[in-house]
Amino acid sequence: MKPRAFDYVRPDTIAEAVDQLAQYGEDARILAGGQSLMAIMNLRMAEPKVLIDIGGHRDLKGIKVGGGFLEVGASVTQNELLNWPDLAKVCPLLSIAMPWVGHFQTRNRGTVCGSLSHADPSSEIPLSLATLGGEVVLRSKRGDRVVVADEFQTGMLSTAREADEMMIAARFPTADNLKRVAFREVARRHGDFAILALAAVAESDTSVRLGIGGLADRPIATRIDTSSKGAIADALGTLAWELEGSDDIHATARYRRDLLRRLGPIVIEEAIACAA
Prior knowledge:
Elements: E1 7-9, H1 14-24, E2 28-31, H2 37-42, E3 50-53, E4 63-66, E5 69-73, H3 78-82, H4 87-90, H5 92-97, H6 104-107, H7 112-118, H8 124-132, E6 135-140, E7 143-148, H9 149-152, E8 153-155, E9 158-159, E10 166-173, E11 181-186, E12 196-204, E13 207-213, E14 220-225, H10 229-243, H11 253-273
Parallel strand pairs: 1-3, 2-3
Antiparallel strand pairs: 4-5, 5-10, 6-7, 6-10, 8-9, 11-12, 12-13, 13-14
Helix pairs in contact: 10-11
C-alpha cells in the first residue's frame, strides 16, 4: 500500500515547527528520520494531512551531559548516538542496547526520539528509557513540559504527547548506581522486532531494576529482590502472570512468559556481576 496524499513542510526554525503543530493539531505529524512513521503511513495506520520535517535542524542535533542526564536532541540519529565516543562511559545500558536497534542502514536515518515517539512495546530505546527512569521534553506554544518515562508511553504505539506538542529531547539518567547493566534480546533475526527484550540495572547487590519489552503493551520496569535465587524466581514468575502477554505471528504469550522466567535470572546475574 501507499500513504494517502499529504502536504510536506520544512520549517526554518523550531519555533516555526511549533507554530505549525498548533495550527494543524491532530492533522500533523513530526518527521525526523521517518523509519517508523513512513512504514505505518504506507500501511495507512497513520494518515496525517501534513508532515512537519525537523530532521535537518542543528538545534536538535545535540548530545550533551549535565544535570544528571544524557540529553539527546530530537534530530539525533540512532547511529550518531551509538557512535558517540563517550556513550559507554556515560550511559552503559544504551551502549549495549543500541546495537540491537534495527539494522545499520535504518539506524542511519532513524532517530532516538523518533523511536520513543513511535512507542513500539518491543523497541529497545523505549525499554532503556523506562529501565533507567528517564524522561522526555515536549514543547508546544504553551511552553516546555517534562514527562517521566513511566507516564510517557501509555500503551501500544501510544504516548502522553498532546497533538500540539513535539518531542525536542530525551534524557537518560547517568547516576553512578546505573553503571552495572545487562541487556538480552530474543528475536527471529538480529534487528527484527524483539519477541522479548530484557534490560537490567543493578542498583545494589540485592536490588535490580529490570525492564521488560515485548510482553506488555508498553515497556515495564520494576525492582527485583535479588537476595536469593528463590526470591528472583518467585518475582519473575509473579511478574510473568501479571503481565500476561499476547499471541501474535512471532510468538505466543506463553512462550514470552517462559522466556522471562528463563532469561530473567541470567540478565539479572550479569548486571550484578558487571564491573562498575
